[in-house]
Structures are given as structure tokens and as C-alpha cells.
Amino acid sequence: MSGSQLPRTSCRTKMAADRIRNPEWQEDIALKQDLSAYVKQNLRQKEILDLVSRKYPMYAWSLRTLSRRLSYFNIKYSDYDVDVDRLKEVINMEMEGPGCLLGYRALQQKVREVHGLNVPRDLVYAVMMEVNPQGLEERGGVGRAKRDPRNKVYTSQVSIHGNKTNLICTLYVNNQMKIYSKC
């Protein structure tokens, strides 16, 4: 091998291999705290991936790796083993204070960020129904459809009185327009 040729395993591939097989992340307390804070902020995994890949470039990152590391640190987006009495207490406190007009999605976000409880939205909704059922009705009928379902035909009528033409145009869902004239 001549002096100008590089060996098969260059320095660059050796560094990448060290980064991939780097088990030091398991003892990194700052990484665990940052991941926990990002999950409490309810950031998406792609957003978390962007943040940790910039802050911790010494570790290899992908969505699957992030998911595996969250699982290793036992960090979950929704904790189903939450004490319901504690959740009732928190929601009661919020209903008596400035959070009385919040919907269940905003209240779930506030419970997550302020009180540190990673509870699912359906559990927040169920506890809100227990604690203050008339409050949900006052907020605008949570869970009801906001408008009536449409039928699949859109009809418009055109009338031109100058030369006495009446048209009815009907647009069907398959983008075919039928024009009917009435005299």
C-alpha cells in the first residue's frame, strides 16, 4: 500500500462506528431530564429528534433510536397508571380558578405542563364530566358535531329575467355537472 492511499477503515467511518455503538447515553442524566422535559411539553418525536440531535451530537439519532431511548428511560407520553383522585383534585382546583372556561383539550395540556401529570385526554374528559357536567355544556357542547352533515349534492339556481332563462345546476361528488333548464 502506498503512502497516499488511505486504509479501508478511514477515520470518518471509525468515528461513526464509535457514535453508533456508544453506550454512554444510558448513564447520561442530563439526556434523561431533557427527554422528560420535551415529553412534558408534548412535543412531537420529530421535534424532539431535532432538539436532541443538536444538543447531543455525540450520540446517533433516528426516530427509532429516540423511541428506544424513551422506552429505556421509562418516559411515556400518556401515563395510564395515574391516581384518579389526584387528577380529580387537580381538575377541581382548575375548575374553581382561571381554568374554568377551558375545554378538555386545553385542560389536558395545562394538567400536563403545570401539574406534571401525563394523562390521556379521554381520562380528563371523563373526570370533567364527573366534577362539572354543566360546565362542559356551558363551553359549547363538547363532543357534538359543529354542523349538520351535508348531503353529497350541491345545487345552485340561476335565473336571468331579461330573456326569461332559468337554470338549475347540480354538481355531484364525482365532479359531473348536470344542467337542467326550466322555461
Q: How is this structure best summarized?
A:
Helix content is 46%, strand content 12%. With 183 residues, it is of the alpha+beta class.
What can you see in these coordinates?
With 183 residues, the chain is of the alpha+beta class. The protein folds into 3 domains: 11-72, no CATH class; 84-138; 153-182, no CATH class. 46% of the residues lie in helices and 12% in strands. It contains 8 helices and 3 strands. Strands 1-2-3 form a 3-stranded antiparallel β-sheet, with no helix packed on it. A hairpin with a 4-residue loop joins strand 1 and strand 2 (165-172). The radius of gyration is 29 Å and the shape is elongated. 8% of the residues are buried.
